[in-house]
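Hi R.,

Here's the chain you asked about this morning:
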Amino acid sequence: MTTTIRHEPDAARLAESARKIRSPFELDLSLRFYSPQANLDGMQHPQIADWHRYVGEEWTPPPTPSGGRRVALLIPCTKYKPYSTSREHRAINRALLEAGWRPEGASTAPAGMVGHLDDGESPDLLHDGPLRRGDVFLDRFVLSEPMAIVPYSHIYYWRDAPSPAACYDDPGLFEARGTSVSPERPDCTATPLANGKWRWGPAERQAFAETHNYLAVIIRRCLVRLSPAYAETGAWVSPGLTHRSFLADDAFRRAEGLPRSRKGTAGPVKLVGVLEGAPSLVTMMPTQDQLEDARSRLAGRLEAEGRPATPAAVRAVYARGDGNDTPLGLPEALTHLTGWLDTV
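And here is the predicted structure, written out as tokens:
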């Protein structure tokens, strides 16, 4: 792995990054990762490396009362930080609250964070502590590039300072967007396209695979170490996206059609995930069947509400999560998450 080098992108990109960090938090200018190569360099950033060591070796959940048990829930990182202010996380947390889960203990969310909620939304959506229902305690974790895994208790603060998880921007591992490149870097091998976007080259694919596998190792180390504390661990992550790939073993990749390798600078690089050698460590959700059920029930709801319910209209609403950013935030999908929690 190479020594971290700062290559400066253009001002418009910096401004866009700053807009993604919500007050009172601010963008850490050293925590911007716009390409796979920048991500790979970022693994040696002092804060990132220290964080990886912390979650891999130190973090533990609060003590569980006698007779209680804990469940872990892995959810995706989001464009906006802190994660809890995103529509996707608010939808997930709302579904949990509506299913009877209640915040445990005090929240460290800054008072001003409620200004990022819509009218009528509960401040409990921003709570960063465990959730409790009866004798079961639910700890949420965020799967993240470049943080690997973020305990929800650290989405705002870490070591008495703003958490790096609240202050970074990393759109650098999303090949399909055509913008996850750093053309200002001398090691950029991406090709510009006529539509203004870019096609990754071998250096981007190599760095993606190395970063992917590095983060998967950190996540696995954390989850294996913590597994005795949890009765179950579930992941609510989108099919086809990087967070799902961080977790998937080869059998899961084959079943879902996820990439099994990337063609790098010297040939294919195998992608590895948390479930390699431990396929029962995490329950992956939603399944394809669950998403198809959500689409079907969404169509019924749209029709009942008098909204367009043609196949094209349903696809468009589904893709945006009906205002919740992604399908993971759809109420019709989230019934499968809360249903799983009812069984653990």
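One quick note: The CA atoms of residues 20 and 249 lie 32 Å apart.

Cheers,
M.
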